[in-house]
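Reopening this ticket.

The earlier resolution said the output was attached, but the attachment link was broken on my side. Pasting everything inline this time so it's all in one place.
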Amino acid sequence: MTADEKNLKLWDTKTWNLIIERTVQKKITSLTFSPTNDILWANKFGSVFAIQHSDFIDPSLQFANEEDTDHPKVKFLLGHCSLITHLKFCRFGEGFVLISTDRDEKIRTSLYPESYCILSYCLGHKGFISSIATIEYDPFHGKLYAITGSGDGTARLWSIPDGKPLDQHAPHPAPSSPTPPPTVKDLAIHSTPSETTLALIYEECAEVHLFNVELPSGRLSKVAREVLPSVPLCLGVVGGLFFVSTLKDGLLAFRPRGHALGQPEGLAQINPTLITQNEEKLEQLLEKLDWGNMRKLPDKVLKEQKKTKKIKTQQ
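Inline output:
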């Protein structure tokens, strides 16, 4: 776990006790566990590093704050030319694929742990990649898929690892409209042997949109829309249900086909605590993590900023 800082924190999810905390050199933008039990993190300069879990928790291993990425136990995996937004794994045959996304619309697929071997780039988005989910339809025969959300307002379905675009969904207004499209804030996948459902939420929109993902043909078809009592923060899947986290109403649940459950008994017990304790802290954190900070400024604005900075330097 990490926040708007340079610390990596490892927690025991059964007790939520902090196991160890380490400080790294640069601010972290994404992190994950590998299927081989490595800990991966990406920094704001587009570099991805890995360390074995056993080494990370070894109390005798010391990081020098300015040299952590030069430590012999830390392995450099790959680099982007922009801030990395997500790291995601999926099985591929007898090995694994690492998908990395960035602020400059790029989606890279690499073998893991041989991450120097680039399989493809998924190209088509016109804005930063804000969210990603993978579908292991038939990984041992190379049938993998990824769905990505972006600051351009679209959700796109890709074939992995060849990077072929299959389908996309764009909200209203259309991308050609002078009104900027809403960012796809988060998305999640629920899969069963008979069907795959995609749920996604947009920035500043109190709705959840549900789609049927037709595989292996690669089609997205909208099936339902759930109106929420407040704007959602993120969503996920647990035990066959979609869960939406909101700032004002806590956790909400609904079935993959759009049948709302509201707040089951278990959620009704914990939501008051979540809401009262976290609202102020979340508002402060969300200001720092606002997707607006990821959007590129127009060239005209960038030129003006450079000009102003140059004048100040000369003074």
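Reporter confirms the inline version is readable. The radius of gyration is 21 Å. The first strand starts at residue 7 and ends at 12.
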